[in-house]
Amino acid sequence: MARPVTISDEQILEAARIVFVRNGINATTKDIARQAGVGEGSLFRRFPTKEALFTAAILNPPPPAWVRELDTLVGRGDLRVNLIHIARGIIQFAQEGLPLVMVAWARKAEPACSFANSVEPSGVRDRRHVANFLKQEIERDRLRPCNAEAVARMVFGACLNLVMDRLTLGQSLSLPEVQTFTEELVAAIWNGIAPR
User: Fold this and answer.
1) Where in the chain is the domain with CATH 1.10.10.60?
2) How far apart are the C-alpha atoms of 79 and 89, rounded to whole Å?
3) Residue 81 vs residue 123, higher pLDDT
């Protein structure tokens, strides 16, 4: 009788993210297996190559909680509060995800990394979800007609820029800073998108 699986794919992917961020593109499957608490064979039974594991862990992670929540926010609550919540989700995503993206960029520079070109980056996917959320709010007359993609890019860009600045300076963001920034960001954008 086979032993039951005691570790999920997501636990393996989380271990891979930790090791890829720590060791960069030189991370080994042995290091990842050790981090996950499994044998290398377990990795290769679930992910046939290191590239497949890298793609699943770094290039194509599942949508974060704030993205999965967008559909539940459409047409509900104070839209400004929802936009602040979304901006805070983007900042949290960026604080966790930008180091992974940097690893992916480094990996993409390698000639053997053509597999990376076939995967939509998670940030692009998630920004598309925000634009779709905004379009649905426009359809419900909770926002004035506007270019939802441009507004999504403004929110995403501002949040990513804040996190990137702090990463390059080796500084972290405090919760009060994130709260103030997101409130001021939404206030600045709101005048252009508020319903008439």
Assistant:
1) 9-59
2) 15
3) 81
The CA-based diameter of the chain, rounded to the nearest angstrom, is 67
Residues 6+ apart with CB under 8 A from 22: none
Which residue has better confidence, 24 or 164? 164
Residue 76: both structure tokens together: 């509900």
What's the pLDDT tens digit per position in 82-122?
999 999 999 988 887 777 667 666 655 444 444 445 556 77
Per-residue pLDDT at 7: 81
3-state SS string over 161-185?
HHHHHHHHHCCCCCHHHHHHHHHHH
Per DSSP, helices labelled H in the chain are 9-23, 29-36, 40-46, 50-54, 65-68, 70-73, 79-108, 122-139, 148-169, 175-193
Could you confirm whether domain 9-59 is CATH 3.40.190.10? no
Single-letter amino acid, residue 19: V
Range 65-193: architecture per CATH: Orthogonal Bundle (1.10)
